[in-house]
Amino acid sequence: TSEMLGVEDKGHDALFAAIHKDHKPIRSLEDVADFYTQYGVDKANFMSTASSFAVEAKLRQQQVLVRKWGVRGTPSLVINGKYLISVSNDVPQPKMIEVANYLIAKELAEK
After folding, report:
1. Ordered DSSP codes for 1-62
2. Structure pTM?
3. In the predicted model, is pLDDT for residue 92 greater than 90?
């Protein structure tokens, strides 16, 4: 929804911080709409956009990819649609970027 409304770049990191750093209770779509009002988004417009055909279609597309790639949680990274990196005993979160950089370089070298 924020992407469709042109505020994704403004609000994405701030929404993450509000939830994970400031521990603000954002539990519903209405809470998200309230959050984005600080970026000039009309709440009613946010709510109607969130339930629009375009947003629903994009959500369905993303859900298909999540299932296809086997993503089961966060954080997870998918490299070039081939490799899934998730936190595990073998790959702790700090090592994920190192593994991702290796796989990105490998994919670029193969092109």
Report:
1. -TTTTT-HHHHHHHHHHHHHTS-----SHHHHHHHHGGGT--HHHHHHHHTSHHHHHHHHHH
2. 0.71
3. no
